[in-house]
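Weekly structure sync, notes
Attendees: PL (lead), two postdocs, one rotation student
Agenda item 3: pending single-chain targets
PL asked that the sequence for the first pending target be pasted directly into the notes so everyone works from the same version. It is reproduced below exactly as submitted, 160 residues in total.
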Amino acid sequence: MRIADLFVALLLLAFGVAVVIQAKSVGAGWIRGRPESGFIPYWLGIALISLCLFVLAQTLWRWKRTAEPFFTNSEGMWSVVKVASTALLALPLIYYAGFYAASAIYLLIYTRWVGKHRWHSTVLISIGIPVGLYIVFERWLLILLPRGLYDLFGAILTWL
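Predicted structure, written out during the meeting:
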């Protein structure tokens, strides 16, 4: 598992560096009060690089410690199935319900079923994050995200 952690962290680190380089080449700052086209990819690349360095440091720090394998019983495999199934459910939801409703439904299912959080936390997360994304992307950055065929959540958010 540690070799896989190192390999994936190095692979994503290289990808993050490539994203930052490409974003800088198209412009990653502000121009006339608006972000340039590489602004968001640049900062996402910086975040990815930072997290990859954290994973690398954590993996190397814990290298000598003994760890049990991830799939010691069916629970490890079941957690992978739950994560994959919720992610696969989100893809058609974006097409039909739009990004915001799909995000709300995905977060509701994921935080309750996979994360086993309490209902009040689950509802706050599943409504707060899509609303926050709407405010950041559509109001502040003026970037439209996919609306979907039946976009009730987006229609509600436009009233805000």
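Discussion points:
- The chain has a mean pLDDT of 83.
- Strands lie at 30-31, 34-35.
Action: rotation student to compare against the earlier draft before next sync.
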